[in-house]
Each structure stands twice: as structure tokens, then as C-alpha cells.
Write a structure and sequence with these properties.
With 1000 residues, this protein is α+β, with helices and mostly antiparallel strands. The protein has six domains: 186 residues, no CATH class; 367 residues, 3-Layer(aba) Sandwich (Rossmann fold), CATH 3.40.50; 106 residues, Immunoglobulins (Immunoglobulin-like, Sandwich); 98 residues, Immunoglobulin-like, CATH 2.60.40.2310; 124 residues, Galactose-binding domain-like (Jelly Rolls, Sandwich); 71 residues, Immunoglobulin-like (Sandwich). Strands 13, 14, 15, 16, 18, 19, 20 and 25 form an eight-stranded mixed beta sheet that branches. Strands 31-38-37-33-35 form a five-stranded mixed beta sheet, with no helix packed on it. Strands 40-47-46-42-44 form a five-stranded mixed beta sheet, with no helix packed on it. Strand 7 and strand 8 form a beta hairpin.
Length: 1000
């Protein structure tokens, strides 16, 4: 996600002020940094004076202070560049003997790094001329140095001046002329001689209250329908069992993050905890800054797509730092085979382009977010048009619902949003010629170029994405930086599958992606995005989404296992249709569906071929184990479940069937999954959280669980409980389709517990086909769910403040204290302030949310004001212009959707203060009858209650019809039990069925 600053918008129109430069700029930019010998021993460098100085006729404000220190990165050109380009072409040509035969960093340095004597000469030159060498690199392509402005000016024969930035509210420094250097060894580029364009994150956070006109799709599992966690896998790789195990993802960052945000995201999204390693570059990052949203988002997206990844390495450098410093560290470490960056800034960088080539030679995949400013119209910030990495655009995704299947996508474009035009960036590079793998595509409909590089290459969702960042903040965001780390996570799945079949990593994917796009399997491997565009007023017709490749979404988004197979296994003359195994599911004992799949084997080669099949699974069988195929022939092959599948215990089973073409020796695999589901179902699917004072009473005290056998065979079941403060009912047997009830209750031991939080697990065990269902239970003895709900710490401990929190304080002023010593005075004017807290809950459990509010201002006017309450993003109370009032208890019945839910309170009061105190959340038992007794002509119905809640008793005479009738008026509970006497139980009908409802 690109953060839309005024600088970027202004930068775009500034280029359009001089359209006559177009051709000249393009020609010059094709060789932007060639070193030209001017006199003996001196070379002139190019591309170091920001073009904006001449374009805007900027005049120096003053010299850069002589004592200012500059950190520079001096790049040396690679040796044998023609040989490197030839090798890279062979590495990514499936027909070459060098296909996927990658180099190590040591091999790359030996073959292509600068000569050792040249690198040492540069070190000596820097030290001799007063520069301090701060970092040396093993590939000998880069040297980091530091020096005062005076020293830098002398070494590079420039004058460094300070200018007013033409489009940003800051100054910048830059040389007055192109630098030259009295050094015989060729120098490629020097990073750090100016700070005109700083690296900026592709980070555009959207607040639902900021006046945006966009309409999010709202089909995700996160707050407000935003996409989170497994939503991405459900949409793009449904049924894929790969999770990134054994792989390492690298993330390039110019800022830091809070690790607790990642932990919270994993918890809310139901994801495992992934190991994070921070690598400090150029001193690293201390306290996270304005780019914290970007860093958190990148980590969370990578984990969402590859939740089993072994490690994520976050390479952190302060902003500004030279791009080559980060990239060179990532390449020379060679630890992460999939890398993502959501930052951009600066012009073409030849030193970094060399490093991208090193990564490709080592089998590393690098993904870059193209940006969020709609279609490119001029210069493109580095590295969004590089030909040596994969550029990623964005889409707006629609699914069937939370955790649901893919429905459709369109090119992401919000149009005008908060003063900026926002959407997926793409266009034509003014610098780089079209690479070979991008040639051969019709550019008529998509308005692309046949001579210059076109971007992006691929896309993923960039809209309505949930992120947790900034030490506890959260929200829905949009941007291509959602998409780039998702592609890095997807590549971890590719490389996991490659490792499983013993082949190298996939490396630089563009040659393979474009081969698929131009081939017959494109529609099966990609979601082709054909609607939408990245138009904006300065580019009103460029570029539309069209069938096939386009300049807003590239080739589109992944279509599950099909694309994984296509990218991992090289094209072969033995074709297998369909190209993936099936996922069979059913209750343990069977039957399973599907039970078989027919495959068609084809020979697209020029010669007959022989093939063989290897199947090591006892629960699968194939109709043939080998065969021959004439040229152009097609044979069928059936793969089916065996009777062994019916004897498998509850669990998920994976098998791989390998098919070998003995002419090409290429092995293709079909992965099959069998899900023997638990026939024993337990409802509700979570235990209760009981709360109350030490020694009780606690609420709830018991819960009934409905057990059902969804299978075709009888099931014996039991309950296992290891907690002394719980008791459970005994087990039993269930016939096929049968049901039963089990009860879990607090025992008398609960009342003897000391103050604290106690947890327990009860296992519902299927003793017939195996497997358990574990339900967690929690007992809070003297521990409130809402921490510091009475503010008796004297401060906001346990709470997070956000928004306008001026005039918001904890006070002992009696006007704002309902009970105890402290309360809160809420007095921000004009815009809302917020107090929020994450409350531990049980998914599906009801809670009584209670708080006390007053408006004590009876002298200067009570309004305008506003007070709202939100539970997990849903507004349950919102009132404006509350009149003068004494303390009032507000109560709301809410339901937990996750293991933790966010309580947020919003407020403003222009003339004075609102008072808030005693905020609590108490679990509420599901309404259930305790006793039903029959007298001579009456029925007495008794049930447990909770003070303040509303209960409605209803009856019907026919369970096959939904015609329940209220029996009496709704009852507001004031005690722990309630009884209703039905004085006419059977005279009006031969039978009655009763039910109890808890009203909101």
C-alpha cells in the first residue's frame, strides 16, 4: 500500500509540465549511469542531480553545513555482464541443462563480482581521501562510506546545497552538478548524494470515518468484513495443504514494527505463531515510526498466505538508507528464497539492478508493490519498473462470505479519495526496454508497449484488508503492498512443494509466468481480471483491464493448486488433465466424496513416450501403473479410493502419486487429500467462561452440550475432565444419526479457589473411530473480563486511547465517579476520542456489557456531545446531544465472535465533560430450564436468570411449524432465578412445547 502524500501527486503533474522532454528523457534514460572518462584518471558519473532542480528552476537556499555527515553507498559494476545475462537466460529456460542450477553467493562473487584488486583500490581511495569505510560486502559490488559534507564535495567535485522541496513541506540537499571522481576503476553509481526522494511505504490506511466514498466488498472474516488470515487462502488456494513449512520469507523495510501487534493478529486470525527475526542494516530501526503500518501489514500478509512458514526475516534500515545496502544484505545472506518490498523511492538504480540479478542467479524470488497512484504517466519510482523482479498490482476481491470461496475480482481503483487518486499502479517504463519474456503479447487492447517494459506482472487483492499496527491500533487498508507480501507467501508454498519432490526453488518467476500466460493452460492457472482500470484525470483512458495481460493487474491472480503445479513442475510433453489430485472428504468410516477421478494423459511431443506411475498409498489405487503414448495420443487413467480408506481413523491424510515421462525424465506429481471427518459433533463448539467474586456465585454455572453422530456407523463417546473445579456427565453410545446431551458444570471446588484466572479443557472423545474435540473452559474468580473497568488504578492502565483524546482524564472529582475513588471525564471537542480494550472471550458466548454514564453539566449547556459503544467493530449504542442526566446504567447483550473481542467507547463533549465509570462484561448463560413441575392444573417452569436481562417464555403446539407464541410478558430479571406458572397448560391443546428466549 502506497502512502498517498501530496508530494507524490504533485510529482506526477510536475512531469507533465514539460511533455516535450519525453523523447529526450527516454533516450537518455536508457543508459542513465554510464561512466565517461573526461581526462586521465577522472570519470564523470550521471544521474545524481535531481531533474526537479532544473524543471522547477530551483535556487539554492544555502550550502549544506560543512560538518553534516553523509552516508554513501558506492557501487562497482559487475564483471562478465554478458556472461551473466546468458547464464540467467539458461537458468530460467526449461530446455537448458542449466535450468534452475543456481549459484551460491560465493560463486556469484567469484564469477561476476568486481575484481578483488579493484575493490581494494576503492577502499584505499576512500580512506586516503578522508572517507570512513563503514561496510564492506563479500560480493564486492558495494562499499559503504561516511564523510562530512566538505569531504564529500572534495572527493566528488560537487557543491552540496540545500533547496526548498517543490512539492513537499521540507528541504532537501543535492549536488549542483554531476559528480566526477579521480579514480581509475569504473564506478557505477553513488547512492546518498541527495535526499530529494526518500523511500516511502506503499502504505495507504483507510479509516471508515474519513469521508471516503469507496464501498468495501465486506465479505471477509475481519472487523467490518475486512479480509484477514485464512480468507486469502480460502479465496486463492482452496483445499491446498501446503503452508510454507521449511521456508523463509524476507521482507525489506525502512521502518520497524511492534511484535505484540503480530501476535495479536495471529490470535485474532486463528493463525499459528511464526518466528520473526529482525536484521539491522545501517544501524537498524529503534522505535517504529510513520511506516509502522506498512511493516506490520507485510508481516501479517505473508503469515496469512503461508501460516506454516519456518521464519520471516525482517531486514530493517533507517529511513533514509541506500537501497543497495538492504538489497545486498538480503542477497549475500541468501537465507530467504522469497522476498517482498512495499517501498519505493528514487530514480533508476543500476547498483540495485545488479543485486536483483544476483538474487535471480541464486534462486531468490523478489516481489515489489507497484504503487497506489493509479496509472503511471511519467517517471516511475524505483523499483516499480525493474525488469529483474516481479511487479505486483492490486485487485478488489469478492468472496462468498467470511472464509468463503472466490467469486470475482476487478482492478483496484478507489478514484478520488481524500484528495488523492488511489488505485493499482501500472504503465510503461520510460527507462527499460521490454524484456524477452514479455515479448510476443498483443498490446493493442491493453494499450501497452512493444518496445518498453510494461508493469505489473501479476496481482493479488489490495482492498479491504485488515491490519493490526502501531502498538494496538487496527483498521481496514488498501494498497498493492497487501498484494506483494501475499505473493511472497504464495511462493513459499511453491518452494515447499519443490522441496517435497526434491527440486530447486522457483527463483525469478517472470519467465515462467509469461510462458503460462501465453500458453494453453492460462485460464486454468490464473484468475484473469477483465473488469476495472487504473484511470485517473491525467490518464483518463490508460489502462483498462482486458482479457489476458493488462497494465493494471498483469496476468491476474493465482488459481490455486493449478498454478502451483504449473510453476513448480516445468512444462513436459506428458500432459495430465486435470493437473491436480482431488480432495475427498466424509465422516470416518466413509463414504467419501469424490471417490475417484479420471485423468487424461496426452503426448504433445514429436516422438512416442513411455510413462510410469508410482503410488505408495494404501488408500489409493490407479487403473494402470505404466503405458505408452503415441504422438498426439490420449489415454485415460482412473485413480480411486480403496476400501482401506473406510478403516482410517479421524484425521487428514495426504498422498502423492508420481508420473514419470521416461523420455524427458520429468516427474510430475498429483497430490491427493483424504479428510476423514469427525462424525461426533458437539454444539456449542466452545466451553463457557464463568465469572464472579471469590467464593462465588459464578455465572454461568453449567452448560448443556448436544452431541450428534453424523456418520453411518455407531459411535461410543466419553468425556475426559482433569479439572477439580469442573464436573462432567458420563459417556454413552450414539447410533448413526443419533443425538445425546452432555453437561459440564462448575463443581463445589470452584468456590474455594483463590482470586485468579483458571483454565481447563474437557475432551469429548470418539472411542470408535478416534479423535477428540477439546473445549476450553475459563473461570474468573474475582477477575473482571474488562481490566481496570472502574479506573481504580488512577490512570488508563489496560485501555488504549486513540483519536482526539484532549481533555480526557482519570479523575477523583465526585462528578465523574460512580463508585470507588476514580472515574473518567470525557471532554474532547469537535471530533471523537476513543477508549478501547481487547476483552478475552469465548467465541459464540453471550456477554452482558455494562457501563455507567452521566452528563453532570447543568450550567453552561449540555450539548453538543456524542457517546457511542462498539463491540468488535459493531456499533451497539450511538447517541448525540445527551441532555443533563445523573448516573445511568447502560447494558447491552453482545456475542463474542472470536477468542478475543474489542470493546471501543467513543466520545466528545464540546461544552464540558461526560462521566464514565464501572465498565464490565459478564458472561451470560444460554437460557435453560432448571425445573418443570406439574400441579393439578398448572405447569411451573423455573430457569436461571441474570439480573438486568430480559427473558421471554414462548410455546407452540406443533414443532413442525414456526409459530411460537409469547406466553405472558417479557420478564426483566432481578434475581438469580425466575418461575412462570402456566395456568392453562393443556386445555387449549392436547400438547404444548415450551422454549425460553433471551432478548437483546
Amino acid at each position: 500500500m502506497v502512502s498517498r502524500t501530496f508530494a507524490e501527486v504533485a510529482g506526477r503533474w510536475s512531469i507533465r509540465l514539460v511533455p516535450l522532454w519525453g523523447i529526450a528523457v527516454m533516450v537518455a534514460a536508457l543508459l542513465p549511469f554510464t561512466a565517461v572518462a573526461q581526462v586521465a584518471g577522472k570519470q564523470l558519473l550521471h544521474g545524481h542531480v535531481p531533474p526537479a532542480i532544473g524543471r522547477f528552476h530551483l535556487q539554492p537556499m544555502n550550502p549544506l553545513p560543512a560538518t553534516n555527515r553523509l552516508n554513501l553507498a558506492i557501487g562497482l559494476p559487475l564483471r562478465n555482464q554478458a556472461a551473466l545475462d546468458k547464464l540467467l537466460a539458461e537458468i530460467y529456460d526449461p530446455a537448458s541443462t542449466n535450468y534452475h542450477r543456481y549459484l551460491t553467493p560465493e560463486q556469484f562473487a567469484t564469477q561476476f563480482g568486481a575484481a578483488e584488486q579493484d575493490y581494494q583500490a576503492l577502499i584505499n581511495f576512500a580512506q586516503t581521501n578522508g572517507l570512513t569505510v563503514t561496510e564492506m560486502y563479500p560480493n564486492r559490488t558495494l562499499l559503504d562510506v561516511s564523510g562530512t559534507a566538505t569531504t564529500v564535495e572534495k572527493v566528488f567535485h560537487v557543491t552540496l546545497s540545500v533547496y526548498q522541496h517543490p512539492t513537499e513541506n521540507r528541504t532537501f540537499f543535492a549536488p549542483d552538478t554531476e559528480p566526477s571522481i579521480d579514480f581509475n576503476v569504473p564506478v557505477l553509481h553513488v547512492s546518498g548524494l541527495d535526499n530529494f526522494e526518500l523511500p516511502h511505504p506503499a502504505n495507504l490506511k483507510k479509516n471508515p470515518h474519513n469521508g471516503s466514498t469507496r464501498t468495501p466488498s465486506g465479505t471477509g472474516s475481519g472487523s467490518g468484513g475486512a479480509y484477514i488470515g485464512n480468507d486469502f487462502r480460502a479465496a486463492y488456494i482452496p483445499g491446498v495443504m501446503l503452508n510454507g513449512a521449511g521456508q523463509t520469507i524476507g521482507l525489506l523495510q525502512f521502518d520497524g514494527y511492534y511484535s505484540n501487534d503480530i501476535t495479536t493478529y495471529e490470535s485474532q486470525a486463528g493463525l499459528p505463531s511464526v518466528s520473526l527475526t529482525n536484521v539491522a542494516v545501517d544501524g537498524g530501526v529503534g522505535t517504529p515510526g510513520s511506516g509502522v503500518t506498512e511493516v506490520s501489514l507485510d508481516i501479517e500478509m505473508a503469515i496469512s498466505m503461508a501460516p506454516g512458514v519456518s521464519k520471516i526475516i525482517v531486514y530493517e534500515a533507517p529511513n533514509p538508507s541506500p537501497w543497495p545496502d538492504l538489497l545486498n544484505r538480503m542477497a549475500n545472506d541468501n537465507l530467504a528464497k522469497q522476498i517482498s518490498s512495499s517501498w519505493s523511492g528514487g530514480g533508476p538504480d543500476p547498483t540495485s539492478e545488479q543485486i536483483f540479478k544476483q538474487m535471480a542467479a541464486q534462486g531468490q524470488s523478489f516481489y515489489n508493490a507497484t504503487g497506489d497512484s493509479d496509472a503511471f504517466t511519467g517517471a516511475i519510482s524505483f523499483p516499480s519498473d525493474s525488469t529483474n523482479i516481479t511487479e505486483v498490482g492490486g485487485t478488489t476481491l469478492t468472496t462468498t462470505g467470511p472464509g468463503g470461496a472466490y467469486v470475482s475480482e476487478t482492478a483496484w481503483n478507489w478514484g478520488l479519495d481524500n484528495g488523492s487518486y488511489v488505485g493499482t499502479s501500472g504503465g510503461i517504463s520510460p527507462t527499460y526496454p521490454i524484456p524477452s519474456w514479455q515479448q510476443g503479447i498483443s498490446m493493442t487492447a491493453n494499450q501497452g508497449s512493444t518496445i518498453m517494459r510494461n508493469v505489473p506482472d501479476v496481482a493479488l487483492t489490495a482492498d479491504n484488508v485488515y491490519v493490526i499496527y502501531g502498538n494496538g491500533q487496527s483498521g481496514s487498508v488498501g494498497g498493492t503492498s497487501c498484494a506483494a507480501p501475499l505473493w511472497a507467501g504464495f511462493t513459499a508454498l511453491l518452494n515447499q512443494q519443490a522441496a517435497l519432490i526434491g527440486i530447486p526453488t522457483v527463483g525469478f518467476l517472470n519467465p515462467a509466468i509469461y510462458a503460462i500466460g501465453k500458453g494453453p493452460g492460462y485460464s486454468a492457472d490464473f484468475h484473469d481480471i477483465t473488469t476495472g482500470n487504473n484511470f485517473w484525470p491525467s490518464s483518463p483512458t490508460n489502462f483498462p483491464a482486458v482479457p489476458g495481460y493488462d497494465l493494471c493487474t498483469g496476468w491476474g491472480t493465482p488459481a490455486g493448486q493449478n498454478l502451483i503445479n504449473a510453476l513448480v513442475v516445468p512444462p513436459d510433453t506428458l500432459g495430465i488433465i486435470p493437473a491436480s489430485g482431488f480432495i475427498a472428504s466424509g465422516t470416518a468410516g466413509g463414504p467419501f466424496s469424490p471417490a475417484s477421478q479420471t485423468y487424461f494423459l496426452t503426448n504433445s511431443g514429436a516422438n512416442p513416450l513411455t510413462w510410469s506411475l508410482v503410488n505408495t498409498s494404501a488408500w489409493l489405487s490407479a487403473s494402470a501403473s505404466n503405458g505408452t503414448l503415441a504422438v498426439g495420443a490420449t489415454n485415460s487413467l482412473a485413480i480411486s479410493l480403496t476400501a482401506t480408506a473406510n478403516s482410517l481413523a479421524v484425521g487428514t491424510y495426504t498422498a502423492t502419486v508420481n508420473l514419470t515421462n521416461w523420455i524427458t525424465h520429468v516427474v510430475q506429481n498429483l497430490q491427493f487429500n483424504l479428510q476423514a471427518l469427525q462424525p461426533l459433533a458437539v454444539t456449542p463448539g466452545a466451553g463457557f467462561t464463568a465469572a464472579g467474586p471469590v467464593a462465588g456465585p459464578f455465572n454461568p454455572i453449567a452448560e448443556n452440550f448436544q452431541l450428534a453422530n453424523a456418520g453411518n456407523n455407531p459411535v461410543s463417546w466419553s468425556l475426559i475432565n482433569t479439572s477439580a473445579w469442573l464436573t462432567v456427565s458420563s459417556g454413552g453410545a450414539l447410533a448413526a444419526g443419533g443425538t445425546a446431551t452432555a453437561t459440564v458444570s462448575l463443581s463445589s471446588s470452584a468456590t474455594s479457589l483463590a482470586k485468579g484466572t483458571y483454565t481447563a479443557i474437557v475432551w469429548f472423545t470418539n472411542q470408535t473411530s478416534g479423535g477428540t474435540i477439546s473445549l476450553p473452559f475459563t473461570l474468573l474468580a474475582g477477575v473482571p473480563l474488562v481490566q481496570n473497568g472502574g479506573f481504580e488504578t488512577g490512570d488508563f492502565t489496560g485501555w488504549t486511547l486513540s483519536g482526539n483524546t484532549s481533555s480526557t482524564l482519570v479523575t477523583s472529582n465526585s462528578k465523574f465517579v460512580h463508585s470507588g475513588t476514580f472515574g473518567v471525564a470525557l471532554g474532547p471537542a469537535g471530533t471523537l476520542g476513543y477508549l478501547s480494550q481487547t476483552v478475552p472471550t469465548v467465541a459464540g458466548q453471550n456477554y452482558l456489557l455494562s457501563l455507567w454514564l452521566d452528563n453532570p453539566n447543568n450550567s453552561t449547556g449540555a450539548t453538543p456531545n456524542q457517546f457511542l459503544v462498539q463491540w468488535n467493530g459493531k456499533t451497539v449504542f450511538n447517541q448525540v446531544n445527551i441532555p443533563f442526566t445523573a448516573w445511568t446504567n447502560l447494558q447491552f447483550l453482545v456475542t463474542a465472535t472470536n477468542s478475543s473481542n474489542v470493546l471501543q467507547i467513543g466520545f466528545l463533549d464540546d461544552p464540558y465533560y461526560l462521566g464514565l465509570d464501572d465498565v464490565s462484561a459478564t458472561p451470560v448463560s444460554a437460557p435453560a430450564f432448571k425445573a418443570i413441575t406439574k400441579a393439578t392444573s398448572t405447569f411451573n417452569l423455573t430457569w436461571g436468570t441474570m439480573s438486568g436481562l430480559i427473558y421471554q417464555l414462548q410455546y407452540t403446539t406443533n414443532l413442525n411449524q414456526n409459530n411460537w407464541v409469547n406466553l405472558g410478558k417479557a420478564l426483566i430479571a432481578t434475581t438469580n432465578t425466575a418461575t412462570f406458572v402456566d395456568t392453562n397448560p393443556i386445555t387449549s391443546s392436547p400438547r404444548k412445547f415450551y422454549r425460553l428466549q433471551l432478548l437483546p
